[in-house]
Amino acid sequence: MTQETSRVQRWTTLVFFAVLCALLLTLGIPRVIYYFSYTAELGRERARQEMRLEALQQRAEMARKQLGTFPDLSSGYRLVAESVAASVVHINALQELQNAQARPRSSRSRDGQSLGSGVIVDTRGFILTNNHVIAGAPYIEVRLSDGRSVTQPRDEILVGADPMMDLALLQIDLESLVAVPFGNSDTMSVGDLVLAIGNPFALDQTVTAGIVSAIGRRDVVDIASYQNFIQTDAAINVGNSGGPLVNMRGELIGINTAIVGQAGGNVGIGFAIPSNMARFTFDQLLEKGRIVRGWLGVGWDGSSADAVVGSVIEYSPAADAGLRTADRILEFADELVGDWTDFRRIVATTPVGKTVPIVIMRESQRLTIMIKVGEYPTTELGFQVMELSEELAARLRYPPGTRGMLIQVFPRGRAEQAGLRTEDVVVQVGSDPVSDLASYLRAIRQVDLSGSVSLKVRYRDGSVRDVTIPSESERSNE
Fold first, then answer.
1. Are residues 411 and 357 in the same domain?
2. What secondary structure does DSSP assign to 191-251, as a single string?
3. Residue 50's domain spans which residues?
4. Type and span of the H or E element at 451
5. Is residue 132 annotated as part of the catalytic site, yes or no?
6. What is the CATH number of the domain that holds 444?
7. How far is CA 180 from CA 81, 134, 201, in A?
8. What's the half-sphere exposure (Cβ side, CA atoms, 13 Å) at 370?
9. What is the pLDDT of residues 259-283, one digit of tens each?
10. What is the pTM of this model?
11. Which among 162, 166, 327, 424 is annotated as catalytic?
């Protein structure tokens, strides 16, 4: 019996140890594997951290070595300022010619004048500035850094204006001029160093330094129809408008245009028109004497930031191509479209008459449509139009609530012959009142453009007068 009991105990012990081993194998081995895997992963992560730290140390060491050979930054600023200074001009938009003749050069009085800046971009005397700097001025004075000055009637010094871009091109007849070369604004990135030069508060040749704070700023100020501003923290104040924003190679990469500040002074947020957009205006005015922009004839629905069609103007290129309301525009002319402002800018710089693909999303279906780009509405009457916004009306000193179509008059055209001037406002064509582009186009289609055309025009003093555009035959007989 004792031997039998001993055998049972041995088997019980063996079974116990077998079960224990099975449990250990079942539960312990995964834990052991996990432990070793976790330890290995920790080792790999530690190795990665050490590699990252080593890379950071190497970059820091390389940067310190480069700093040792890097030229003094202040010397770079000084050289850029010296290379550009002679190209920056002081612009006074005068209401009376005697203001320029009687005022001492150091005066900062603004009575009857608007102060601004400009930049010489061609040694033949061509100067770019903001349109709002010279808006409504019968006389324009340009002062150079060497003390020379030119004062002329607006019609003699103004080559052309582009209110939609808030740019104007002047020309002075002086020798030995220094021009700033155009840079490529598309290559600028956030953090790039820039200098702003101009005449804030009539303090000539003021230079401020900063960086590019942002690019592609849109709808930040209601001063231009086409916006793609470079934002900078370089100090820009009243009087800087029209002056250059330059890179560290002394190249023009922007025209200083607007600021954001409750008191109208610098708070580190300024905006410049990119040089590539300014170059477009410069080339157009130089070659054609007017701005020719692409146009489709669609309106934004305004429900979101996306480029969603809200309206299609009858007989427009968009209508001919079959665009519809609620179409969301994804691409135009093989360029991605970010928002409605981006879309308008791309269309405007597309050559008129070119047929391009437009990719849209319509009822969850992606479609590609070919569309022929038209010209932004101009007529045989000799002017181009744009809708007058409230802020633009205020800048041009029109009475509050003024609505209509702001015009840009082409040189030697029928409108100029009738006495119309750029920045007059057409409020009626024939018997039809006009307040926006759609109503203007409807009214224009109701009249015979080859014959004489009656308009009602509003002027800055608030008066509204009847103006008759002569017929083509009357003009040709003169």
1. no
2. T-EEEEEE-GGG-TTEEEEEEEEEEEE-SSSTT-SS--EEEE-S---TT-TT-EEE-TTS-
3. 1-70
4. none
5. yes
6. 2.30.42.10
7. 11, 21, 23
8. 3
9. 876 555 667 788 999 999 999 999 9
10. 0.67
11. 166
